[in-house]
User: Fold these one by one.
Assistant:
Number 1:
Amino acid sequence: MIQIKTAHEIELMRAAGLVVAGALAAVRAEVRPGVSTGELDAIAEDHIRTAGAIPSFLGYHGFTGSICASINEEIVHGIPVSGRTLAAGDNVSIDCGAILQGWHGDSAITVTVGEPSAEDAALMAVTEASMWAGLAKALVGGRLTDISHAVEESITAHEHAYGIVDHYGGHGIGTEMHQDPHVLNYGRSGRGPKLVPGLALAIEPMVTVGDPATVELEDGWTVVTEDGSRAAHFEHTVAITPEGPWVLTAEDGGVAGLAPFGITPRT
Ligand code: MG
Ligand code: MG
């Protein structure tokens, strides 16, 4: 069932989204060689709890962190641990969620430790741009797969044949982190549920340098590329409003990210 929120409930989700944005900014500031993913997890949890919110990942089906920290060939769902440190040149995807007054926010960034190689910089840019292409289609009057198609088209527009991970995707979000509908990162446009005011979605492309086939590690969580190629993951939570997309987990509501698409968000 798709949960449609009132305008007031969307404002509550904005507050939750800003907590997640703040937690990710705090983590990003501490990404450096030698820092452990456990330390980054503690920074996120501290930020979330100080804001009066609850880390939604912690305890989710038994997950032991407040963030997912996925390094290099790890795509998503990496478990943060105190003994695992980052090195220069690593790419780390940080995924974070928080609950404030019963409403969820969910967002992810991928950052390179130190200076990225040209290949890594391109991987990150392509993945983030595809997320914004999808967010730019979170428009009243559209259909769900307009978003999916925009994400795919953005990724396949490049000379390098990037892989689009197809076992995982975005989702509805509201009083639970994962709600209907599932949001594919590929497909034909013009299908699926109509995009109506009060629908909130997490848009989260996962892109690989090589083949997008995935394997889940024996820890029961970490998803890696089968071929060992590097991956990137970006995510924002967006609300569909009569005034345009409202990127609830972006500090600026999506102003900068949507500008290249000629879209002005609600802010
Ligand atoms: Mg997430
Ligand atoms: Mg998500």
Note: The first helix runs from residue 7 to 29.
Number 2:
Amino acid sequence: MSEIKVIGFGGQPVIVNTGLFINNAFRLAAGGSELNVENPTTGDRLASVSAAQREDVDAAVAAAQAAFYGSWRTILPSDRGKLLNRLADLIESNADDLASLEALDAGILFGESKALHITQATDTLRYFAGWADKITGQLLSIPQGHAYTRREPVGVCAAIVPWNAPLMITIWKLAPAIAAGNVLIIKTPELAPLYGQKLAALVKEAGFPPGVINIICGLGSVAGQALAEHRDVKKIAFTGSAVVGRQILKASASSNLKKVTLELGGKGPSIVFADADLNNALFWTTTGITANNGQVCAAGSRIYVHASIYDNFLLAFAEKLAKTSHGDPLLSETTKGPVISQRQREKITEYIRYAKESGIRLLAGGEDLPGNGYFVANTAFADVPDDARIMQEEIFGPVASIAKFTSESEVIAKANASEYGLGAAVFTNDVSRAQRVSSALECGQVTVNCWGMLHSNTPFGGVKQSGFGRDMGEEALDGWLTTKTVKYFTLPTE
Ligand code: NAD
């Protein structure tokens, strides 16, 4: 099988196999199908990797099924935990390679990938390693005797992941799936698959038995669709757009009614009250829309600021937003990488053009950035009307929509007037207000006096059209388990 060498952080070579990882071996896709991977920093072709076809998906599912009905079901739960811990150690010792690959094909800052995404991934593996031998049922009384529940693995599962934090999101699925005793096929994103090629080698090195974790790249419309329609796949965990989430639900409905969990988009509100620590609020609200170029599902893309501090906030926000140095994400001096693709850049700049043409007040950015890569200036609009497209639709780019409010009830209504409900941030020094507003917001998580902040022991996911099911936290296990009830009748004495 072919290997490729790319140049990563510090000029170090990183070598990955380009094949599909099925049954612990790399192989070519049917008909030798490949897809090209671009470097968004330059617009140049970076690599080609095998692109799974429907028959490759069948092979991955068959391998997973053989593993599940073979020895995997009898492996000690604590041994599943050991494998997850070993994978965490290997990811940690290969962090430079993995962060380099995410910088090269996803445009993620090397430092951000290593310090945030990879650390989060290893934390999550270790968190769920601890759960592997602690999954228990209940003992229940019934009039005729007693009953108990067994929490059993679902079986052959699949994970379909996006490109914006590909390793971390993959591990959010892999760790609870394996802790719960399932086998897994991971469909990596076609725009940024190189991390998956490296991860596959680490899965083998960690000692997972063949077929337990299979990693394939391929087009969503081909490999992703084939997984979603497959009758032997019992569960799909999906992170991505709402459009594709709906397609996956339809495919489940028209095939075998597989279990589906969806982590979809967002239009996160950040609410800054007058009593907030202004510097802290500025730090987090700017981070919330510029981290990874706003290509974050929980991005704080709607910013509501109390009228009494609005003008000062806008001045400081615009100043802070402008302080970036765009360029190669592998370099430590770079603070802003490219967005993922030319198509994504066009989509974002189309929103900026629309907002300017609609007469919405441009506060910062909005200009074209030089270079061949797909760079988009950090941009903010102020006094944005509630019904403006940039206040309603997920842009998935570094574009903030800011508006003022005067009362708590008004801002809660504005924040909740969205079809999405993923993350929200509240900035205030008033504890009662923080609690009132947090409970009134319709979303999956609220951060008070900060933004984002992922922890492996806290559930992450959405309500409304941001999806259902949770990654991380004990609750994530629910998505990878089924409950069987066993009832014992006490027979009367003879
Ligand atoms: P996308 O939906 O286009 O693709 C996501 C994955 O789905 C990719 O692997 C793709 O190949 C696959 N796919 C595409 N068509 C498919 C089909 N018909 N059947 C099965 N699979 C298919 O999303 P994207 O552009 O990669 O990512 C951006 C979106 O993801 C944004 O909307 C963002 O908000 C969302 N996202 C959500 C979270 C979260 O946790 N809620 C995290 C990251 C990204």
Note: The chain has two domains: 3-265+467-483, 269-448.
Number 3:
Amino acid sequence: MTILVTGGAGFIGGNFVLDWIASTGESVVNLDKLTYAGNLETLKSLESDDRHTFVQGDICDRALIDSLFSTYKPRAIVHFAAESHVDRSIHGPGEFVRTNVDGTFTLLEAARAYWNGLEGEAKANFRFHHVSTDEVYGSLGPNDPPFTETNTYEPNSPYSASKAASDHLVRAWHHTYGLPVTTSNCSNNYGPYHFPEKLIPLMIANALAGKPLPIYGDGQQIRDWLYVTDHCSAIRTILAKGKVGEVYNVGGWNEKPNIDIVKTIIALLDELKPSPEGSYARLITYVTDRPGHDRRYAIDARKIERDLGWKPAETFETGIRKTVQWYLDNQGWVQNVLSGAYRDWVAKNYGDRAGA
Ligand code: NAD
Ligand code: DAU
């Protein structure tokens, strides 16, 4: 038995591949284009593990996906691959439409053709799990209840609009063609192997380098933070027990304003790696806000808890301490990303292996 994972060299996909093999022992075919966000160094521990097959390629490449289905006959596909950074989507939305919309369409069509050719139990048990985001629901006011699965879609950024479009395609491929899909809409993840352009790893990296900690606008925007391995366990649970055609919201019940996140990171770094120049708080710098910046996200995760028995294992306090410690212990990984050396490492170590 094997599953096909897309985007498994990225932050969440990489954590998912490591977690999946460790907790289920089942093999993974990992299709990833290795954009700037894909980093095979994350999967170094699987280098000589034949349960992990890496394929460098694009989810928009229909012929490649068809060949992966026919070669590996996966029992499920878990679709992470996406352009994921809101700020990048503001500067260059085209790649977001291409990968997130066209790429998801291509995967759905390839999966439909493959699934139509299956029979019996293989056909009944096949799953297409689509990994999506809470950002599709738009922005909450201070007193609004958290997002449930029935909230209307009100995406505000090119990124969230492209993810919303992909969610709609997945829904339609189930309703029209019967493709056995599930979708999860998750809140902000944090944890190991997070690319240091997103808030938490950027703040840790900048503080350690003595650089400014850029707070967009007033820093009072609220996100709902979930430790990444809890997201992985939620997806494992949905694959095992989720109902076909259903959407599950996944979150950690951890709403925090950005400035509080940054102050928590500063307090941990002041404790674990004090700077001779004094508290890292001196580096906080308020900068011009992100255009169209959503004010608040919050997830109501009661459905997945009630129907599937999933709950996060980490609190924010335990998760953020682990995360800061991981970055302190893995400065080599961070430095290779910041210098771009991870790309050389990939070519050197995986050059011969990459390709279908
Ligand atoms: P990421 O940017 O770290 O990783 C994305 C991965 O997809 C990279 O390895 C990249 O190389 C790969 N990729 C990009 N375009 C591709 C293409 N055309 N073909 C094949 N591979 C391609 O993203 P992430 O933060 O790990 O997010 C993974 C998924 O989870 C995304 O779908 C995102 O929308 C969703 N999500 C993320 C969060 C979060 O907080 N990061 C929260 C909820 C949902
Ligand atoms: O909500 C889920 C989403 O969370 C995912 O779908 C996205 O893929 C993921 O990137 C993340 O989106 P955000 O825009 O919330 O994450 P980001 O880390 O970019 O920013 C978090 C908050 O911090 C946001 O309010 C913007 C703010 N911020 C971010 C950066 C990079 C700053 O104030 N300064 C910064 O330098």
Note: The pocket of nicotinamide-adenine-dinucleotide (ligand 1) is lined by residues 6-7, 9-13, 32-35, 37-38, 58-60, 80-84, 99, 103, 131, 133, 163, 186, 188-189, 195 (CB under 6 Å).
Number 4:
Amino acid sequence: MLKFDNRFIKELPGDPNPRNHSRQVQGAFWSRVDPTPVAAPRLIAHSPEVASMLGLSEAELQSTDMVNALSGNGTLPGMATYATVYGGHQFGNWAGQLGDGRAILLGEIIAPDQQRYELQLKGAGPTPYSRRADGRAVLRSSIREFLCSEAMHHLGVPTTRALALVQTGDRVVRDMFYDGNDEPEPGAIVCRVAPTFIRFGHFELFASRGESALLKELIDFTIKHYFPQLLPLQDNERIIAWYGEVCERTAKLIAQWMRVGFVHGVMNTDNMSILGLTIDYGPYGWIDNFDPGWTPNTTDAGGKRYAYGRQPGVAQWNLGRLADALSTLDIPSEDLQGALAKFESTYAVEIKRVFANKFGFKTWSDKGGEIVDAAFALLSASEIDMTIFFRRLATAATVDDFKDAFYLDGEWATEREKFAVWFGHYSALIAAENDEENRVEHMNAANPKYVLRNYLAQQAIDAAHEGDTSKISELLDVMRRPYDEQPGFEGFAEKRPDWARHKAGCSMLSCSS
Ligand code: AMP
Ligand code: MG
């Protein structure tokens, strides 16, 4: 049984209007809203780790009451459903009120180990924050969110989790590429789990409206429950320390994205977690051939604002918008700028550590830095699979061991010599600096063999559309142990096949979901 204790709605004021219609909500943090029931809910995948983290047995999870709760068709004792209000900067512009337009919280539970988690259904129907949209989510994007949340966790990247994936039995109409082709698609709901889903945009909204008392209340709530170590500090000092910690956590998060080749795709400030978690899996993607300018998001194809290589800069910009919001509380901007500088300093340390680990250097050195820069120049100049390249690095005996990391045979032919020279320098440095017998083990722990390649997720989606949902759990099983060699499953570590190069869902995704 889940034990609910919903602090967000117990401690923060809510919207007195009980009706569920799109509107601007002021003077409140949340609105009561019931999920809209669905036709024929079916639990098609779940995460055993999240279930046990929450104290749910397999039988409890699969029970009719639980599946009904996970699909919006029923309530559990103690559950209280609501949506929260936030704003955000989207693609660099202030977008005003956004809010949980298709996410409905079921409440906060206390797990057996006394940790607390919020449960949230994504795609459970309209809320006061849906604007003109339907509050629903399609199966393809829900499979992607479910799988990636768990894959990221197993990779060791901070993230919201996913308990369950329910197919609703209803159809949802979407125009996948915004080109006038509406299509009915199967609908689904993911149950997400995190200590809190509070985003930068929550703070920005109250600041934008000049609602300083509410902004202060939300900061106090956040610090009290999620950053309690800062409570001994007072007033502005406490807020500045908290903001500095958000900057540090965000820097660590982005360094991890860069390590595993993850591209979020929509780093709007409403998609930035105050806890430094990866949140809101939309048109995200994984780097196949190493290209810092790549973004999976077709909606961003023009500006490539959220491309892989731009993620650190964008995170910093987003933190700047959070600082702007805090500056409305008469906090000296020099102090906020000083705390924001922690982003750069933390990121610099973290990314060096990440690269030292990926390349197998015991410590960071100038010489190592030159070799890393040279490697990235080579990787960028031709189409080379990032994941395979790094995984091979630990055990490669000759440059020819990198041949099948190349996407184009012709490029291998022309680039091989340059690689051979680089590999010579690299091997010499490793021989001189790293006498560790556990070097391969350490490198393998930084360089996953299995990542949730875009085409793998798409194959699971295609099968689910044909009625076979077993591929989702199969894929999740492999992604549970991304750093292990998994004999018999090498197929999941292969580079993107040619058919996937320009296929929708594999190399291009839109925000339509
Ligand atoms: P996103 O770009 O997915 O982070 O969403 C931006 C905003 O649009 C958030 O406020 C979402 O809740 C809202 N939104 C996205 N899709 C829908 C939908 N189908 N129905 C209602 N609101 C949505
Ligand atoms: Mg979002």
Note: The mean pLDDT is 97.
